[in-house]
Amino acid sequence: MAQQGTHAVQAPSVHQHLVTPTPSAYDYPLLVKQLLVNALAVSANQEITYRGELRYDYTRLRRRIGQLASMLALQGVKAGTTVAVMDWDSHRYLESYFAIPMMGATMFTVNARISPQQIAYTLNDSSAEVLVVHAEFLPLLESIRKDLVQCPRLIVATDDVCDPPLAASSLPVAGEYEHLMEAASPDFAFEDFDERTRAALFYTTGTTGDPKGVSYSHRQIVLHTLATAATLASPRDGQRLHREDVYMPITPMFHVLAWGMPYVAVTLGLKIVLPGRYLPDALLRLKRAERVTFSHCVPTILQMLVDGARRDSLDLSGWKMIIGGSALSPALCRAALAQGIDVFTGYGMSETGPVVALAQFPPGAAPADIDESVRTRCMAGRPVPLVELRVVDGDMRDVPHDGKSQGEIVLRAPFLTLGYHGKPEASEQLWAGGYLHTQDVAVMHSDGYVQIVDRIKDVIKTGGEWVSSIEIESLINEVPGVQESAVIGVKDEKWGERPLALVVRRPGDPVTVQQVRAHLLALAEANRISRYAVPEAARIVFLEEIPKTSVGKLDKKRLREWVG
Q1: How far apart, in Å, are the Cα atoms of 211 and each of 71, 120, 290, 350?
Q2: 459-563, which class in CATH?
Q3: CATH architecture entry for 58-215
């Protein structure tokens, strides 16, 4: 064997390894428009419905995408323009997901649930020139007009032909969506351009400061779509997505591109049910009438659906549901399974595309033991293809994969946001050391499953021990009569911090502080949790409702402000 280093071999130039296409070859760019190609070829007659009232097929979807692009071009939209959309989950939103980025413009999805002041900030920060807006939001826009540097030209969407005339608004209205669409040509020429062109922009509201803009390129959206679709389609049965599924989003299309799932659904040519506003009874009606089989939502919405199904004795069998946004508690998981929902967790955040892990079962049948099944379903899951997921200590060293050693999840993947819009310092902090820092504390198991322990800012340090607020919430939610709970740390002179539990009872249930505390003390006696994790009786407080963020997460920032 030749001695290493005896003969230095000159590394060839990188350019010598590039593939050189023949002049006539089509160097296929990863653009959003390519996600339509297969759907139109094999699923042209597949149905899309809005609230079960309006229906059309994929062929007409493509025609309307062309009309929307032509209509926007007449309003001055071109490559590089930012077009905002402010609507509930509708066919208009789906059309915007394609038409706006396919023009080379940026689609800015406005979070309709944040404060008016934050909406004004995001419209100003995004430099949106045109706003497709549901008529319901016109009064809100009137109220913030004085705060807008430049009010975008409005294209107003209405669901009812009897809506009041648009001339009554003092805002700069270009016209009504459908009237402008009727006058626009479907034959818009969607040219190719650089796949790194920004396709989508939205804003995430953190715990401090102004909302931060998160953007994704065409390349990132396409790769996220393919990675997510491949993962969801890989199981033999259960917890999977296939071409016969009927898809209904229950995560707003204005938030993280509805987890990227509308792009997955169109790519696979699925029947799509767009529900408008999220009203539990309407969602359950659409599930039955349209035979919906695949959705995704946050735990708050899932709880409403489970309660509604239980109240009306509905069997929701055949409904596969990804849960994200905040932790899925074992108690809620069991309740959903009892109603027939095949529920499992997805993990990600606004900055990650978002899907980077899914809690699908490993190859083979689901665990026969219900406790093991629930435990697996409630984990963050295992990474999807193309994702490098590490759990590291403060020195960026991987912690042991023993299910006990805690660290922060850091990521690399081709579809993670590369920085915040106009915020270089925050962007560098996000990507410190060349990995995206999630601020999520987790453990890694030997089989590759990741389990979230807490957010770094939500971990409670008491009596020299770290207590997971997520774990205590999950255990409190097991108490009969408890609907939901939130646990935060409050200052304590002796112990540094102590847990404060805020609990919501189920309507009409008399669950008491003593019952909650007794349940936790029994778990401490069994060494399931530390005694430091059990709140004193005075720190178990019942509320009518726990405040939520605009996307349905427990708003612990507001809770901490409330308790001082």
Answers
A1: 30, 11, 37, 12
A2: alpha beta
A3: 3-Layer(aba) Sandwich (3.40)
Task: Catalytic residue, from 197, 204, 205, 228: name it.
Answer: 204
Is residue 466 among the annotated active site residues? yes
33 is catalytic: no
pTM: 0.86
Contact, 550 vs 113, CB < 8 A?
yes
Q: Which of 47, 136, 158, 466 is catalytic?
A: 466
Digit-coded pLDDT (tens) for 384-411: 999 999 999 999 999 999 999 999 999 9
- Residue among 412, 418, 417 at smallest CA distance from 385: 412
Which range has the worst mean pLDDT, 160-174, 269-283, 348-362?
160-174
176 is catalytic: no
Distance CA 148, CA 430 (A): 29
204 given a catalytic annotation: yes
Helices (H) and strands (E) in the chain, counts: 17, 25
Domain span(s) for CATH 3.30.300.30 in the chain: 459-563
C-alpha span between 34 and 430 (Å, rounded) = 31
Which position among 78, 404, 457, 461 bears the catalytic label? 461
Determine which one of 176, 195, 351, 484 is catalytic. 351
